[in-house]
Amino acid sequence: MTEVTPVGRAWRVSMYALCVVMVLSGPGFLALGILLDADLWAVILIAVVLSLILVPLGYAMGSDIRRTARGMRRLDVAGVAGTAEVLSVTHTTYEDRTRIELNLSISAPGVEPFEALHTRDGSDDLEVGTTLGVVVDPCDRFYAVS
What are the sequence ranges of the domains in the chain? Predict the structure, then answer.
């Protein structure tokens, strides 16, 4: 099963814009260097390095955004409401932020129960045995924890 993080349209548009900026940064730097009559070899070298790093990264990021959007659309159409029981809670920190890693047992009508890890920010008062709402797509094996 694959967890899908619910995101809004504005977030997706801004992330797509960032991907476009990443992909165009190398050629843009080359055009700017030529326009400003900078040292041609240095400009070409920097543009190639930027392109080699940021084009694959931008493409991978765009693919991940498309996969997430496709999963959310699929959950909206074919998702089945279910429950996720907390099996274990692990508190961690990441860059001075408190995070919780939950081991969940997820079940929904028409879906074989499965276990999954879910990480969320904050210090929710979640304990073992607490139930959360989930939406599960029985065909494509996507789910989202609410």
Answer: 2-74, 79-145
